[in-house]
Specification:
Number of domains: 1
Bound molecules: S-adenosylmethionine
Radius of gyration: 15 Å
Strand order of the largest sheet: 3-2-1-4-5-7-6
CATH architecture: 3-Layer(aba) Sandwich
Helix content: 40-55%
CATH class: Alpha Beta
Distance between the termini: 34 Å
Shape: globular
CATH topology: Rossmann fold
Number of strands: 7
CATH superfamily: Vaccinia Virus protein VP39
Largest sheet: 7 strands, mixed
Structural class: alpha/beta
Strand content: 15-25%
Length: about 190
């Protein structure tokens, strides 16, 4: 990623620290681990939450089978514009994942097979975590995947612990990855199935 993209990421963080929730984009290493966890043979569509400047998007597009639909939902207009320039032709919905059902409907998707989330769950208030998970359940099919990452230190924060507790309530299966050290800061991810 070029310096201009880092600069945009950091300036967006300064303006909207809770929504961006990180000082640097995800590493290619973390992105690869996340996207390799998608059950591609059983995935005909995939939705990315909070693509930011596109580190995970890039990896999704590398691994995306040609007959699989991809949609990205990004709340920041600056990031959305940047994504459209970086990846011409991809479908970027500018808005909140709280409206995921409406965004999917606009693109003819009723049920989603896999969601890869870059949202900073540990910096969200309780009601936002619940609203975004409720919205997710409106579109994710039974057996569908929900893959999301967090930072190791965030697991200890009250909001991080609360999020983990909610995952157990919403999903039938919740697995936790090993730490991904090659990321700033070191990360891990949850692999959930509805
Ligand atoms: C931690 S950054 C991750 C960016 C990118 N996925 C990465 O891994 O480098 C969180 C992203 O989620 C976006 N975001 C936060 N709240 C959102 C919401 N309610 N709906 C959609 N995107 C949101 C932010 O604008 C930001 O791009």
């Amino acid at each position: 990623m070029i310096a201009r993209e880092y600069t945009k990421f950091i300036s967006e963080f300064v303006c909207h620290p809770r929504a961006v929730g990180a000082v640097a984009p995800s590493s290619s290493n973390l992105a690869r681990h996340l996207v390799e966890s998608v059950d591609w043979p059983h995935t005909s569509n995939v939705v990315e939450y909070g693509p930011g400047t596109g580190s995970i998007t890039e990896e999704i597009l590398c691994q995306l089978p040609s007959d699989t639909t991809f949609l990205a939902i990004e709340i920041s207009p600056r990031f959305a514009e940047m994504l459209r320039m970086r990846f011409p032709g991809i479908r970027v919905c500018e808005g909140s994942v709280s409206q995921v059902k409406e965004h999917c409907a606009c693109h003819g998707i009723e049920q989603v097979d896999a969601i890869v989330s870059g949202l900073p769950w540990a910096s969200f208030a309780d009601e936002d975590q619940t609203a975004y998970l409720d919205a997710t359940m409106e579109v994710l099919r039974r057996g569908g995947q929900f893959i999301t990452y967090g930072y190791l230190q965030g697991r200890l924060l009250p909001a991080g612990r609360r999020f983990r507790h909610k995952l157990n309530q919403y999903f039938s299966e919740v697995r936790v990855s090993k730490p991904v050290w090659a990321n700033l800061p070191p990360a891990f991810f949850y692999l959930c199935r509805r």
